[in-house]
Amino acid sequence: MERPAWAPQGIDISVPSVSRIYDYYLGGSHNFEVDREAARRAMEFMPGLPKIMQANRAFMRRAVNYAVSEGVTQFLDIGSGIPTFGNVHEVAQKASAESRVVYVDHDPVAVSHSRAVLDGNEQAAVVSADLRKPQQILDSPETTGLLDLERPVALLLVAVLHFLEDEDDPQSAVAEIRDALAPGSLVIVTHASYEGIPVPKEQAGGAVDVYQNIRNPLVMRSREEIARFFEGYEMVEPGLVSMPLWRPDTPAEQEDPYAFAGFAGVGRKA
Fold this sequence. Notes:
Blueprint: H1 18-25, H2 33-45, H3 49-69, E1 74-78, H4 88-95, E2 100-105, H5 108-118, E3 124-128, H6 134-138, H7 141-146, E4 154-158, H8 170-180, E5 186-191, H9 201-213, H10 223-227, E6 233-235, E7 263-269
Parallel strand pairs: 1-2, 1-4, 2-3, 4-5
Antiparallel strand pairs: 5-7, 6-7
Helix pairs in contact: 1-2, 2-9, 3-4
């Protein structure tokens, strides 16, 4: 397989990547046939997976605009993936020229491509780090150089927590970052769940198995379990809901049924 110029040296391009699969669902070009093959296998069980990802991105953009409207112009996006059109820095900096964004991912492709996209943007940076090591993120030169943690920060955990198993103790990692943030900070979360998926659980489980088989387990949590990630935050209206129902720009009834799979919410630190 020929290695394209954007693919960093040292990564195995014969192994599927969650970031590149996500990029494929969104219609991006930074993915390989091995990623597309895994995505197509998952879509055999859940044909609407691209609709879920599109709803996820649309929610993210609405939440970022909400943050700016509330005076929060600092963003820490963990598990940011490969930048595509309408990413956090584009939305935030369009809404406010003061916006500063730090992207965090542990996928070398996502980090490398993010650095290329952000070249020349002095108010955005990328950190190669893992959510399971919060202090590494908080102490990184990029974070300390761009973000003032004494002022409110919007923490984005969009489509990332469901890739952490319970044994990784994601709740402790989220709490550690929360404790480092100033009052008035926001947490923006989306999470996969069997709840809301318009196919039987057994069928959806086939897609989950695809991720298990590529050694990137997808953990489907209940609404109650997802709500625990908001401990220490006050939920912003309308609470933890299906993605199209969080402060929609267009009537939710126009959305594809798959868009209602999983949950999204925003919390504010008192």
